[in-house]
Design goal:
The protein folds into four domains: about 70 residues, Hemocyanin, N-terminal domain; about 160 residues, Malic enzyme, N-terminal domain (Rossmann fold), CATH 3.40.50; about 180 residues, Rossmann fold (3-Layer(aba) Sandwich), CATH 3.40.50; about 70 residues, no CATH class. It is about 45% helix and about 10% strand. It is built from 24 helices and 14 strands. Strand 12 and strand 13 form a beta hairpin. The radius of gyration is 23 Å and the shape is globular. The two termini are about 20 Å apart.
């Protein structure tokens, strides 16, 4: 490949160092006169980035600024994200990415990733071949039908794969050249989007049935042909499709669904950690879910495996798990129960949500509804009535859709709640104490899964990998964090967490005969050497 020089080098986002090019480099690459006199290292450049970002008065403006930085200088972007992960992750992903998706067509600057539409049928391999890189290891794909708690956003949902790829790179050190965000733009049933003159997507009602299935089949097959080492992460598909595709492909290709399995693992890790605060045994816990969608179904399924690993039978495990929806407690006498959640229906009297808490006395309450305010005051007070240290995990995001806020949870439980949420919340002061609520973000799980699968070249992604990831995440919560009421580790250590999860994933891959690379003597050092370092 011809060496880039001059303006072409300066404008290449993957190769540029901007003002950090040395005097010698400026002479060598034809950059003299194209840059100001001073040479600055990446840390001084980062200082300038932070100063300008913090001048922005809204989260969406900061998102746009950071996205433009990514398009200009890739290494500077990731250096800034990694070094200031607590401040920036909420801007490049939840909760800001929800607003960014709603406004995607209106804030569009430069295309990132690939778009596949029904007009590409029969030629998806050709579309994939247009991508400039060939050694692809991570693909995040959505069809935009169930974006966070916001519903059908069509092609605007591309903001989700773009954001997830950024977290793979920042949190687990996957090389940017090995990642692709992909939108399966099969239309949208959101009439407001189709009528928006600035909408950029396929402006027709959603593809369904066999036509939809065959397009997804072609996509998966094309990935296997073109990028045989790639892991496919399915993201924000409608619940029935999410489970269907997982069942269809998981035993054939490297793939997983983050909404089902990633959410399950991060939630299980939080429940494991909560036992260190409450003093209870995991195998003794009764766990209640509000919501019966892909997140709740995935968490419940993984928890059955976790209970079995702790010594319970599958039947005993299911008796520990209770699901509630808008009709109340899920019981076996109810008609038309979705097959996926039918095994969790109990043979008992039906109760309303609040009465179910009174009767069952769950140790842990998990919200996966996508509906704001469903953990109302009486719910939290009832959990605090039946538990000395109630555990409440409000998973829904963005922030506007969370079941309750951190402040509400602490206030309504008189400061006794062990709280975590899917969206970030600021510290809360109550009765002279300062609580720092933990965020149960999937970014703790999926980057490490991807790193472990890449490192081991595992042929498939197994359920036991998510159990191992949950345990590794929980083990990385320090005693100091537990003493402060946190059930997840600081985001500042997320690359260490991803490394630990990758080690655990490789060990499972080896045990299950899935790894295609022989395990090195110093596994952690080997994985560490794979991790992308955005420095120059």
């Amino acid at each position: 490949m011809k060496e880039l020089r001059g303006k072409l080098l300066l404008d290449d986002p993957a190769l540029t160092k901007s003002t950090a090019f040395s005097r010698a480099e400026r002479a060598k690459y034809g950059l003299r006169g194209l840059l100001p006199y001073d040479t600055t290292d990446i840390y001084k450049q980062k200082q300038r980035v932070l100063e300008n970002m913090r001048r922005k008065t809204s989260a969406i403006e900061k998102y746009i600024f950071l996205n433009n930085l990514l398009e200009r200088n890739q290494r500077l972007f990731y250096r800034t994200v990694i070094d200031h992960i607590e401040e920036i992750m909420p801007l490049v992903y939840t909760p800001t990415v929800g607003e960014a998706c709603k406004e995607f067509a209106h804030i569009f600057r430069k295309s990132q990733g690939l778009y596949i539409t029904p007009e590409d049928r029969g030629e998806i391999d050709t579309v994939l071949s247009n991508w400039p890189e060939t050694d692809i290891r991570i693909i995040v794909v959505t069809d935009g039908e169930r974006i966070l708690g916001l519903g059908d956003l069509g092609a605007n949902g591309m903001g989700i794969p773009i954001g997830k790829i950024a977290l793979y790179i920042a949190c687990a050190g996957i090389n940017p050249a090995q990642c692709i965000p992909i939108m399966l733009d099969v239309g949208t049933n959101n009439c407001l989007l189709r009528e928006d003159p600035l909408y950029l997507g396929y402006p027709f009602p959603r593809l369904t049935g066999d036509a939809y299935q065959s397009l997804v089949d072609e996509f998966v097959a094309a990935v296997q042909k073109r990028f045989s080492k790639a892991l496919i992460q399915f993201e924000d598909f409608l619940t029935p499709n999410a489970f269907h595709f997982l069942d269809r492909y998981a035993k054939q290709v490297r793939c997983f669904n983050d909404d089902i399995q990633g959410t399950a693992a991060v939630t299980l890790a939080g429940v494991y950690s909560s036992c260190r605060i409450t003093g209870k045994q995991f195998s003794d816990l009764n766990i209640m879910f509000l919501g019966t969608g892909s997140a709740a179904g995935g968490i419940a399924a993984l928890m059955v495996n976790a209970y079995c690993a702790a010594g319970l039978t599958e039947q005993q495990a299911r008796k520990r798990l209770w699901l509630v929806d808008r009709k109340g407690l899920l019981v076996s006498s109810r008609e038309n129960i979705k097959p996926r959640i039918k095994p969790f229906a109990h043979d008992c009297e039906t109760y309303s949500f609040l009465d179910a808490i009174s009767q069952i006395k769950p140790d842990v309450l998990i919200g996966a509804t996508g509906v704001a305010g469903t953990f109302y005051e009486n719910v939290i007070r009832k959990m605090a009535e039946v538990n000395q240290r109630p555990v409440v995990i409000a998973l829904s995001n963005p922030t506007s859709h969370t079941e309750c806020t951190a402040e509400q949870a602490y206030n309504w439980s008189d400061g006794r709640v062990v709280f975590a949420s899917g969206s970030p919340f600021a510290a809360v002061e109550f009765a002279g104490n300062k609580f720092r609520p933990a965020q149960g973000n999937n970014a703790y799980i999926f980057p490490g899964i991807g790193l472990g699968v890449q490192a081991s070249a595992s042929r498939l992604v197994s359920c036991n990998m998510f159990l191992a990831a949950a345990e590794a995440l929980s083990n990385n919560v320090s005693q100091e964090e537990i003493d402060g009421g946190a059930i997840y580790p600081s985001l500042l250590r997320i690359r260490d967490v991803s490394r630990a999860i990758a080690v655990a994933v490789w060990q499972v891959a080896s045990q299950e005969g899935l790894a295609e690379i022989e395990q090195p003597e110093d596994l952690e050092a080997y994985i560490n050497a794979l991790m992308y370092d955005p420095s120059y």
